[in-house]
Amino acid sequence: MTTSSAISADAGDLPSQFDETIASDQRIEPRDWMPEGYRKTLIRQIAQHAHSEIIGMQPEGNWLTRAPSLRRKAILMAKVQDEAGHGLYLYSAAETLGAGRADLTERLIEGRQKYSSIFNYPTLTYADVGTIGWLVDGAAICNQVPLCRSSFGPYARAMIRVCKEESFHQRQGYELLTTMMRGTSEQREMVQESVNRWWWPALMMFGPPDDKSPNTEQSMAWGIKRHTNDELRQRFVDMSVPQAAALGVTFPDPDLVWNADRGHYDFGDPDWSEFMAVVKGNGAMNVERVERRRAAHENGTWVRDAAAAFAARGQEEQR
Ligand SMILES: [Fe+2]
Ligand SMILES: [Fe+2]
């Protein structure tokens, strides 16, 4: 914490205190002085992350009413509710930077702020529930574990709890797929078909290649980001290949091969034109996801009004 010293210091010292905090790997807290660019970058990143958690409830929520057993339904319901909780922690973290939740929600439903493009792909079979847990939550873990050491305190602390829950999500997905792989040949085909559809979009979750990622350098200098997109993508590939082998599925990439010199797997390039098309709003589900979010927000107006009226009455009674 640099808050108390920041208050007594000359305004001119504040930027150097910020730099020192970053250089010594300490946390910046909401009341500390911070450069406007740092605040803006964090708001953009945290808001995008919060929106992804909330929109990410939809693809799997799609299967809640058609889960194949009560056990699977209970697991999936818990998982989807966890994602709602992640969204709320993150909106709270954004609020400490002065970004109101109502405003961020407006920006999302007006298409002015983004969420992860992975959620603009449809969930066509129940195997997709398993594949999303394994690969999509798995990629999210690779992205988010380093964020537990992010330089902004509230974001880093939120990530610790989120990551614990994400690893449960990944395991439940992998366990579901393992069960299906022990089933009929139709079930095994369903798993492979699902993995074929999700593998490339999962690799795109790490964002564009480093040489086309303009914000990475500054975000790393500020300690907001700890690894580049390509480093994290490589980590994810290296982690996933043995898991696929244990499961008995393959990834749809003829260039995927162990490189003994590098000590990593080589792999092919995702189709970045597809990525850009989905980011720009032309994925299969972009319109539906945002429309559904808008409808849920509008349907919830009476709840927010009632909660505000209740809080106001409580305050009046205390007077
Ligand atoms: Fe999550
Ligand atoms: Fe998750």
Sequence-ordered SSE layout with sheet pairings:
Blueprint: H1 3-8, H2 14-23, H3 36-55, H4 57-61, H5 70-95, H6 101-109, H7 127-144, H8 153-181, H9 185-204, H10 216-221, H11 229-247, E1 257-259, E2 264-266, H12 272-282, H13 286-299, H14 301-318
Antiparallel strand pairs: 1-2
Helix pairs in contact: 3-5, 5-8, 7-8, 7-9, 7-11
Residues 53, 83, 86, 162, 166 line the site of one fe (ii) ion (FE2).
Give a verbal description of the structure.
One of its GO terms (biological process) is phenylacetate catabolic process. GO terms for molecular function: phenylacetyl-CoA 1,2-epoxidase activity. This protein is about 65% helix and about 0% strand. By secondary structure, it is an all-alpha fold. Strands 1-2 form a two-stranded antiparallel sheet. Helix 7 (about 125-145) packs antiparallel against helix 11. The protein is globular and about 70 Å long. It starts with a helix and ends with a helix. The chain binds fe (ii) ion (2 copies). One fe (ii) ion (FE2) binds near residues 53, 86 and 166.
